[in-house]
Fold:
Amino acid sequence: MKVPVVIYANENLLQKMISNRTLEQAVNVSTLSGVLKQVVVLSYFL
Structure:
């Protein structure tokens, strides 16, 4: 099962997420069988 990935980030944070494989990990999580609705990605970068 694959569910949508929702990302909450500004452009600067999105670039950091791309460089540290955060988005790739979120896609991997979205394929887990226990996830029913969506995967939400939030960042703690300042």
Observations:
- Residues 5-41 form one domain.
- The first strand starts at residue 5 and ends at 7.
- The helical segments are 11-19, 22-30.
- The two ends are 33 Å apart (CA to CA).
